[in-house]
Write a structure and sequence with these properties.
single chain, alpha/beta, Rossmann fold, 5-stranded parallel β-sheet, 5 strands, 55% helix, binds adenosine-5'-diphosphate, binds thymidine-5'-diphosphate
């Protein structure tokens, strides 16, 4: 089953390396959408449904050296399959806007760019896990790993964040390649700008996307 654009709700995903400013912007966008009376739901990956949150606990609590990269890729996409079927597709069908803090591109960037699994294979795996569903708009907040680390206030980095700067730079490179590959849905935003400037750009892109869908 391939999802078509017949969904009434708009689907927006946020992507970027750890500490790029994603959560900050997601919260600002949600607040603005609420003020405008646009019904929306936030989902986060890995996680977002009961089963997906259980998978998240396995993924983010395991000691780094003990999880194989393929296991990691399969758990990330298993979590995505459950979230997509249980939450995202029904919401979109009901005209509710979905804001996803990470979606399928995270697997390409982290397990592909970061861990070195073949990206073409991961694209197929994602197709299977998401029933072919793509976001209407993917906001990629681009920032260097050093800049992200310097501003990050994460005191207990999870197992993936703790892997280091080289890893995050590889992840960033893959995101940059994805922005080139999928220009119709990707918007690359300079994450070194101020929080307000970034929000302004995201709001403009969001409204354009909502208007184009209606
Ligand atoms: P992420 O969700 O991508 O890991 P956060 O939104 O939690 O990142 O941001 C990480 C830290 O950087 C937070 O302390 C946040 O307040 C700060 N921050 C976010 N965006 C900016 C920005 N554009 N300029 C400066 N600091 C920022
Ligand atoms: P989280 O604490 O949610 O981080 P963030 O606030 O940056 O989103 O942890 C999610 C971690 O999992 C993050 O380091 C990215 C990683 N991840 C993958 O490696 N592959 C994936 O498919 C997804 C969705 C996340």
């Amino acid at each position: 089953m391939k999802m078509s654009t017949s969904n009434k709700g708009v689907f927006i995903s946020f992507e970027g390396i750890d500490g790029c400013g994603k959560s900050t912007q997601v919260q600002m966008l949600l607040k603005r959408l609420e003020e405008e009376g646009i019904e929306c739901e936030l989902v986060r990956e890995p996680g977002g449904s009961n089963i997906s949150e259980e998978i998240r606990n396995v993924l983010l609590k395991t000691r780094p050296e003990s999880m194989d990269s393929r296991t990691e890729a399969l758990l990330m996409t298993a979590s995505r399959a459950q979230l997509t079927k249980e939450k995202i597709i029904p919401a979109l069908e009901n005209g509710i806007c979905i804001i996803a803090d990470r979606y399928k591109d995270s697997t390409l960037a982290y397990q592909g760019g970061g861990r070195g699994i073949d990206v073409e294979y991961l694209i197929e795996l994602n197709e299977f896990a998401t029933y072919g569903l793509d976001p209407d708009l993917t906001i990629f907040i681009d920032i260097s790993a050093v800049d992200a680390k310097n501003r990050s206030n994460v005191s207990h980095p999870d197992r993936i964040e703790s892997i280091g700067l080289d890893f995050q730079e590889q992840v960033r490179e893959l995101y940059l390649a994805l922005a080139e590959r999928y220009p119709d849905r990707f918007v690359k935003i300079d994450g070194s700008n101020s929080i307000e400037v970034i929000h302004g750009t995201i709001w403009e892109k969001t409204i354009n996307c909502i208007n184009a869908k209606n």
